[in-house]
Amino acid sequence: MEERKTLTTKDGYPIADNQNSLTAGARGPVVMHDFHLSEKLAHFNRERIPERVVHAKGAGALGTFTVTKDITQYTKAKLFSEVGKQTPVLARFSTVGGEKGSADAERDPRGFAVKFYTEEGNWDMVGNNTPVFFIRDPLKFPDFIHTQKRCPANNLKDPYMRWDYWSQSPEALHQVTILYSDRGIPKTHRHMNGYGSHTYSLINEDNQRVWVKFHFKTVQGIQNLTETEAAKIKAQNSDHATEDLWDAIKESDYPRWRFCIQVMTEEQAKTHPDNPFDLTKVWKHADYPLIEVGILELNRNPDNYFAQIEQAAFSPSAIVPGIDFSPDKTLLARVASYNDAHRYRLGTNYQQLPVNLPQCPFATYQRDGAMAYGDNGGSTLNYEPNSDPNAPKPSTDYQEPPLPLGNVAVDRYDHHEGNDEYSQTGDLYRLLDEDAKQRLVDNIVGSLGQVPEEIQLRQLCHFFRADTDYGMRIARGLGIKIDPSMLPKELQELKA
């Protein structure tokens, strides 16, 4: 027989009575030191976290992604490394404009987000059920979303706001047409496609890049609701799509999507009739046919909605080696913006929550902040570069080709290249009088003398490059005899 569990406080104190508060007498007031009552009420007051600004109403499930076709000619990402390989996933579907308690059957784009828990880190494919969007410049996003929310005067949804905005934003017409077409109200989350919408890039083992579009084609088939059907469903069950997803998985009718890509070479992009990185445009399938990659299957419902779905944080910045960005302006803004939203909604350490935690080894120098889990890095260093041979270090194995942006390329340029780090320091040293020079040297020796000789020698090289006398004085102060082999090459003629 299973041992009966005893109710406790969050600190582990056993509770004898969970029905009656501590009071001064049977009819007296509640006393201040009833910590069990205080804990329950304080936690209750904080149970609701801020809802997502967009995509607040959503449902999700867990499952697997299985590779069915070889695309290693395009990408070195290990989740695609061999046919038959499986990767665990978490998917979330949502409406865009509605609040957390809004209806599933609204005429609205649907969010389609998938978190792949790969051996190289988490890859978040954060898209919609449409291949395009209303804007192509991220500066317009807050204004657009305001038109989809509530009127600041009366707190009502207002057709004037959205049509006033759209009538002055012609780039939105493509998405507006999709929104008001038959596909504007998907029947359920299972009966719609998903798209990365943006242009991304894939990079192979030879560091060659191609541009790609991501597509998830529903195996269940496209099914939609008319306005009349949607109105009837909303009156009966505002959570119909959430319930449908849960019930289908519970009954082992697992929803599936074919994951496909479109591929465009860099040369093709140069002569493409439209801007291939424009979020309001598609690539014609006749020119860039779909290439099947694998099957996404959702086969497990969450054990706890809040922990696994509400706290799930998807961001385009979560990529893995072999998958990268493009010059799509809106995508690049999302890369920065989504993390900021999660830190506001969930907290600084949102990536440490179990649902967001990579299921592979990882190492950072980030420490502290609210809700830091585990040992917070223990006694290890929290900065880099450092001299600890066992500490995490960058690896050039993961260097990817520069991202071309017109006449320039985005890359991690060496900020030392072409810069003289020493001349002005030497000029400053030589301006000092003898007493000031000696005080400077004494101050440095007093501090530098407290660290290992390995670091002293490395730092001495910098002082010597600035001024030979500067380096010699500090060396003598540290008791280090200068061997020419210790010096920078250009100073090795110097004798001790």
UniProtKB/TrEMBL annotation:
Cofactor: heme
Region (Disordered): 1-23, 373-404
Entry coiled-coil feature ranges: none
Active site: H55, N128
Binding of heme, residues: Y338
GO cellular component terms, A-Z: cytoplasm
Any GO molecular function: heme binding
Any one of the GO BP annotations: hydrogen peroxide catabolic process
A Pfam cross-reference name: Catalase
Enzyme kind, highest EC tier: oxidoreductase
SMART domains the record matches: Catalase (SM01060)
Stretches that traverse the bilayer: none
Keywords noted in UniProt: Heme, Hydrogen peroxide, Iron, Metal-binding, Oxidoreductase, Peroxidase
SUPFAM superfamilies tied to this protein: Heme-dependent catalase-like
Domain Catalase core: start-end pairs: 8-392
EC number annotated for this UniProt entry: 1.11.1.6
Classification via CDD domains: catalase_clade_3
Domain of life per record: Bacteria
Composition-biased stretches (Polar residues): 378-389
PANTHER family hit by this protein: CATALASE
Similarity comment: family membership: Belongs to the catalase family.
Protein name (database record): Catalase
Record organism: Hyella patelloides LEGE 07179
Phylogenetic classification of the source organism: Bacteria, Bacillati, Cyanobacteriota, Cyanophyceae, Pleurocapsales
